[in-house]
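Box 3.1. Reading complex inputs
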Amino acid sequence: MPIDNNLLLTLAVYGGVIVAVFWVAMVLWAYRDMRARSRDGLAQIFAAAVVAVLNIPGLFIYILMRPRETLSEAYERSLEEEALLQEIEEKPTCPGCGHRVKDEWQACPFCHTRLKKPCRHCQSLLELSWNLCPYCATDQSRYEPSENASRRAGHVQPTHSYQPEPPPSIDDKWLASGNQQNQQDYPQYVDDEY
Ligand SMILES: [Zn+2]
Ligand SMILES: [Zn+2]
C-alpha cells in the first residue's frame, strides 16, 4: 500500500537523520573531550577518528583509553603540590636537631649548629655553601680567616699571642649519636671575627 510505504520512508529518513546527528555529536564530543585532556593535536584527531569509524564501541574504547585527568585538573593538582612544597620550604628547620629556626638566625640556639654566615662586606646572611654574596657580589672565599688575622697581626704588634676562644660546648646527645659527618657539614658556630 502506498500510504504505508510513505510512512516507512518517512520513518527511515527520520531514523537516518537521528543516527547521523547522534554520530556527529559523538565524534564532536570525543574531539572536545580529548582537547580538554591533551594538547596533542594528533591525539585529538585520533580520538575523533576512532569514534567516527567504530561508532558506539569506539566511544567506549575512547572512554576506556582517554587520559585520566583533564588539563585543568592536572594544572590545579600541580598548583596544589607547589603550594604544599612552598609551605614546607617556608618553615626552615635546623639540620642538626630538627627544631624550627628562623631565616635570619646564624646558628641554632638548641644544638649550636651553624645555619648561616654573614657576608664579609655587607653583612647579609648567606647560606654556608655560598662563596659569593648575591647582594653585593663580594667573593666570600678570597680572604681566609687565618690570612686576615696574620695581616692584622702585622700592623699591630700584639702583646700576647692571639688565643682563639674555644668553641661552645657540644651537646652530649649530639656526640653520642656519632653523627660526625653531619658535624662537618654544619660546623659549630664559633663567635670569631673573619
Ligand atoms: Zn638545632
Ligand atoms: Zn654582601
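In summary: The first strand starts at residue 116 and ends at 118.
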